[in-house]
Amino acid sequence: MFNAMRVSDMIIETLEEVRRKTGERYVAGFRNRELVIHGLGTNDVVYSFDTRNTTATSNQFTLNNLVTRVQVIGKQDNDGRAPIEATVEGDMRFGVLQEIVRRDGDKTLADATAEAQSILDERGKPEKITQITVPDVPFLQKGDLIDVRAGNLVDWFHIEGISHSATTREMTMMLLRVPRKG
After folding, report:
1. Is the pLDDT of residue 2 over 70?
2. What is the topology classification, in CATH, of domain 40-62+127-182?
3. Element containing residue 16 per DSSP (H, E)
């Protein structure tokens, strides 16, 4: 599975496989020069941001990475043609944005169709990008839980990524809304 891969890619792929199988998300980062893998929102101190300490908030939707149809392609014949063995369609309101799953020698049609459905489950909706710009807090890192009560953002979020600006002494965080239980 990890043949000829960089160590960082192996870690990312392993964390992604855990997410697919368990639904739990983990992040990897360095603390005191050691690799630390932890679950989302496991930070001890939860920072709150409101209108007094927030420069900007934004919500955007993007069709990047959107997939609305997945075709399962079988083995090539002697002429190099591969038959379409199955087509799995999602929400077609955004047009046909297609991906292909190739069915190799040991993959059954049912496994390939399940993989196609998994792709639609994961990437079948437009991606929401939520950002907040605040004064730089160097202690915050990817995966931390924060409370936001500013602009159009009023909820708990996990930090997906952080961009620091030394010139403005601010940071912009890409956020993921914490799913509601129940």
Report:
1. no
2. Elongation Factor Tu (Ef-tu); domain 3 (2.40.30)
3. helix 7-22
- Give CA–CA dist 101/129, Å, rounded: 27
As a whole number of angstroms, the distance between CA 173 and CA 160 comes to 7
Q: Where are the alpha helices (DSSP H) in the chain?
A: 7-22, 109-123
The pair of three-digit structure tokens given for residue 117, joined into one six-digit string: 């459905």
Domain ranges of the chain: 1-39, 40-62+127-182, 69-123
- Answer with the residue of higher pLDDT: 165 or 3: 165
CA distance 59 to 127: 10
d(CA 147, CA 89): 37
C-alpha 156/C-alpha 180 separation (Å) is: 10
Does this model's pTM top 0.90? no
Q: Which of 42, 30, 48, 37 lies closest to 14, judged by CA?
A: 37
pLDDT at residue 157 above 90?
Answer: yes
Helix (H, G, I), strand (E, B) or coil at 110: helix
Alpha carbon distance 150, 173 (integer Å): 14
